[in-house]
Design brief:
The complex is a heterotrimer of chains A (243), B (270) and C (231). Chain A has 243 residues and is α/β, with parallel strands linked by helices. Chain A is built from 8 helices and 9 strands. Chain A has a domain of 159 residues: Rossmann fold, CATH 3.40.50. A 6-stranded mixed beta sheet of chain A has the order 5-6-7-3-8-9, sandwiched between helices. In chain A, a hairpin with a 2-residue loop joins strand 1 and strand 2. The termini of chain A are far apart. Chain B is α/β, with parallel strands linked by helices and 270 residues long. Chain B has 2 domains: 152 residues, 3-Layer(aba) Sandwich (D-Maltodextrin-Binding Protein, domain 2); 110 residues, D-Maltodextrin-Binding Protein, domain 2, CATH 3.40.190. Helix content of chain B is 43%, strand content 24%. Chain B is built from 11 helices and 12 strands. In chain B, the strands form 2 sheets. In chain B, strands 1, 2, 3, 4, 5, 6, 7, 8, 9 and 12 form a 10-stranded mixed beta sheet that branches. A two-stranded antiparallel sheet of chain B has the order 10-11. In chain B, a hairpin with a 2-residue loop joins strand 10 and strand 11. Chain B is globular and about 55 Å long. The N and C termini of chain B lie far apart (73 Å). Chain C is mostly helical and 231 residues long. Chain C has one domain: MetI-like fold, CATH 1.10.3720. Helix content of chain C is 81%, strand content 0%. Chain C has 10 helices and no strands. The N and C termini of chain C lie far apart (43 Å). Classes of the chains: A alpha/beta (243), B alpha/beta (270), C mainly alpha (231). At the B-C interface, helix 1, helix 2, strand 2 and helix 8 of B face helix 2, helix 5, helix 6 and helix 9 of C. Bound molecules: adenosine-5'-triphosphate and magnesium ion. Adenosine-5'-triphosphate binds next to helix 1 of chain A. Chain C: One of its GO terms (biological process) is transmembrane transport. Chain C: It is found in: Cell membrane. Chain C: It is a multi-pass membrane protein. Chain C: Its main location: membrane.
Chain lengths: 243, 270, 231
């Protein structure tokens, strides 16, 4: 099932050209050249501290590269039609429904349209019973689900997810994965990080492997999992410590 | 966000509330007077009569004498009603006031501990009383605030040829009430106007130990602030108040005022 | 201390109109000042938390220091401004409740600004990227942060209320303690103390304390309720 994502001009592909990021003289990410095509399901992998979160924040436009370029097809400095689910999402101190409404109001959607979208989102993510509950008092799994729902309600063309299920139990993880798969089916481009190899195998169409701030492999998932070229990636898949 | 809108709305209505506040201004004058006069309760007695008759509300700002005159100089009052003759005459001479009228007088008394360690009760006149206190180095609480009372006290010390200083001389730098509170605690002698003393309740051991010397008389004057200097001065209503206070009726009202059965102020208008 | 308490109680019970007027004026002046200080101080404090400009550190230090501004000094400044011989003399505001509100607003504004800045700064560190991601820029983030920090901000507002309701120096100078017009709880207490009516003064103090206690209890209860309800 493909749903047309709005009238907004397509923002993808996203081109990263020799992108790097340094802070305080320390280079944290460098030489990243990559094209993220529309409809992609890209999983970014790498050890702790490899630079995965940094990579997503750069792509999403929360920080700007200190080196190289990040270019959207729409030529916007920071494309609007994108959303991100953080490793530790921040929910506002208000009800679940109000959390969903917040980004829609920021987009300037009229009240009626917002109400309609919020209702549809609550429904779709099984949050109806929680609609009036304070978001901060939800369980970890429920909070993650709400963060995902909030991102979805923004109707992004591309969705960045930073370890969306790292703190969840297996069944909650499964729910999140199903949702991500559905988003992808709807035409939303997915860029996510994960430490869960099984999850990566289930969701990835493409894999980008980061090691010490460098992109050392970027290939279709099937090829990557069949046998990565880089020794570090092989060691990573084998579960050996690489640092 | 509806919360933000609600917040802004309530803030705005708050501002509107402020804007509406000064709308109460009707027919009133502002009189700068001294704390001791206000504390005695005199105004509470005479002002309702004046307002009843003329419809003019009198708002009394009670301050120290120096501050009250300064309030007049700055044009922040329409009428000044104080008791510091020399300063009042200077005020008029400098062109801040139109003319000074005598209104009434009360008197100062010396209060002190009942056992009277300096034997002030034996003194023949006020100068002798002050000398006795200084010689005995008995504790003395002074206003020390350049008020009319403080000026009167300084004149008495000068007449006695004493430059008061030392551990026995306590300069409180505050109002009459606060000074009396201090005197009651120590206990110490103090110079006070009779009005404040009579309505003062926290006397402790203190009693009047000396009174009656004519140098202790304390004349009150009333002055209209000069409209030529401050055009906004409500000269007409201010003058109406001055006329009333110095009229037979106003003078009678002043003489009528008693505290604990004692008359506090003695009319003196010509 | 049975005396003052009994006096306080019978004063209240008597419903003495002069007393009610004094209580009413005290509440009106202080609450309006708090409202004004919030209307100005909350957005300004939040802006100070988010803005980056040269000299920002100095501005923060100045506002922190101003929290200790002696009420008499605040009163004196407002007095000189509003006096007929001052720059705003033509407004004829000296010795009016409005003047008292202005003085108290000036007095508590630094408290509201400083506490807001510190609360919002902490919150911004946590929220910054998430809000940016959701589409809120710095300016748009201000009301969001204020709203999400509301429980902590309440503490700052209460501190401001406490300072305003307790102070006498500023309202005495700019209000003049005019009976029936600018006499508040604190200036009445000062007056009764000066008259040696210590019992009455303490009774008024008890009433003032009770009012402050009640308002604080309400605010605290509201804070607890919000914390429980909204996380
Ligand atoms: N603002 C910063 N200043 C200094 N160092 C930073 C900053 N942000 C990130 N780093 C460092 O950059 C490196 C990459 O961080 P990043 O959060 O991207 O790692 P990650 O791959 O997401 O790790 P994890 O799997 O643990 O989430 C880390 O060593 C981190 O300490
Ligand atoms: Mg990370």
């Amino acid at each position: 099932m493909k749903i047309a994502r709005d009238i907004a001009p397509p923002i993808l592909p996203l081109s990263l050209e020799d992108m790097g990021y340094a802070v305080g003289g320390k280079t944290l990410l460098s030489g990243i050249t990559l094209r993220i095509e529309a409809g992609q399901r890209l999983v970014v992998m790498g050890a702790n501290g490899a630079g995965k979160s940094l990579f997503l924040r750069l792509c999403h436009g929360l920080i700007d590269p200190t080196q190289g370029r990040r270019r959207w097809a729409s030529d916007e400095a920071r494309a609007e039609a994108q959303a991100m689910v953080f490793q530790r999402p921040v929910l506002l101190r208000r009800s679940v429904a109000a959390n969903l409404d917040y980004p829609l109001a920021l987009k300037g959607l009229p009240r009626a349209a917002r109400r309609e979208t919020v209702a549809r989102t609550l429904d779709r993510f099984g949050l109806n019973d929680l609609a009036e509950r304070p978001a901060r008092l939800l369980s970890g799994g429920e909070q993650q689900r709400l963060a995902l729902a909030r991102a979805w309600a923004m109707r992004p063309q591309v969705l960045f997810l930073d370890e969306p299920s790292s703190a969840l139990d297996p069944s909650a993880t499964r729910i999140i994965e199903e949702m991500v798969a559905q988003f992808s089916d709807e035409g939303i481009t997915i860029v996510m990080t994960t430490h869960d190899l099984g999850q990566a195998r289930r969701l990835a169409a493409q894999v980008a492997f980061l090691h010490r701030g460098r992109l050392i492999e970027h290939r279709p998932a099937a090829e990557f999992f069949a046998g990565p070229e880089a020794a570090e990636a092989r060691a990573f898949l084998a579960g050996d410590l690489i640092w | 966000m509806t919360h933000a809108r609600r917040f802004i709305l309530s803030a705005a209505s708050g501002l509107a509330l402020i804007a509406a506040l000064p709308a109460t201004a009707q027919d009133f004058i502002t009189v700068a007077s001294t704390t001791s006069t206000e504390n005695s309760g005199l105004f509470g007695h005479i002002l309702p009569m004046f307002q009843e008759e003329t419809g003019i509300e009198v708002r009394v700002v009670s301050q120290g004498t120096g501050q009250a005159l300064e309030t007049g100089r700055r044009g922040d009052a329409d009428v000044v009603f104080v008791h510091a003759r020399a300063q009042e005459e200077q005020f008029v001479a400098d062109g801040y006031g139109v003319q000074r009228f005598d209104v009434m007088y009360n008197d100062f008394v010396i209060v002190g501990p009942g056992d009277d360690p300096a034997e002030v009760r034996m003194a023949a006149d006020a100068t002798a009383a002050m000398t006795a206190i200084a010689v005995a180095e008995a504790a003395f609480a002074s206003r020390g605030d350049d008020s009319g009372t403080h000026v009167a006290e300084a004149n008495l010390w000068a007449a006695a040829g004493v430059a008061p200083a030392g551990r026995w001389y306590l300069s409180t730098g505050s109002g009459m009430g606060a000074t009396l509170n201090t005197a009651a605690q120590v206990p110490a002698y103090a110079l006070t106007d009779r009005g404040t003393w009579l309505s003062f309740e926290n006397r402790g051991d203190l009693e009047i130990v000396f009174e009656g010397d004519p140098v202790l008389f304390n004349p009150y004057g009333i002055i209209l602030v000069n409209p030529e200097r401050h055009a906004h001065v409500k000269a007409e209503q201010g003058q109406a108040f001055i006329d009333w206070v110095t009229s037979d009726e106003g003078q009678a009202a002043i003489a009528d005022f008693t505290v604990g059965g004692e008359q506090l102020f003695f009319p003196s208008a010509a | 201390m049975g005396g003052p308490f009994a006096t306080a109680f019978s004063l209240i019970a008597s419903g003495d109109p002069a007393l009610m007027q004094i209580i009413g004026l005290s509440l009106r002046v202080t609450l309006t000042a708090v409202l004004m200080a919030c209307a100005v101080g909350l957005p300004l404090g939040a802006a100070l938390a988010l803005a980056r400009f040269p000299g920002r550190g100095a501005v923060i230090v100045v506002f922190n220091a101003l929290m200790g501004l002696p009420p008499v000094v605040a009163g004196l400044i407002v007095y000189l401004m509003l006096s007929r011989s001052g720059p705003f003399g033509s407004l004829a505001l000296l010795f009016t409740p409005t003047a008292m509100i202005i003085a108290q607003t000036l007095l508590i504004l630094p408290i509201v600004i400083s506490l807001t800045r510190s609360v919002v700064e902490d919150l911004w560190a946590e929220y910054r990227e998430q809000l940016l991601s959701l589409g809120a820029g710095r300016l748009r983030a201000v009301p969001t942060l204020l709203w999400d920090g509301r429980v902590s901000l309440l503490t700052g507002v209460l501190a401001g209320f406490g300072r305003a309701s307790a102070e006498v120096g500023a309202v005495l100078i700019v209000g003049g303690n005019i009976a029936g017009h600018t006499r508040t709880m604190t200036t009445a207490i000062t007056l009764e103390t000066a008259r040696g009516q210590l019992g009455l003064a303490v009774a008024l103090g008890i009433i003032l304390l009770t009012l402050t206690l009640t308002l604080n209890a309400i605010a605290w209860g509201a804070g607890q309720w919000a914390r429980g309800r909204l996380g």
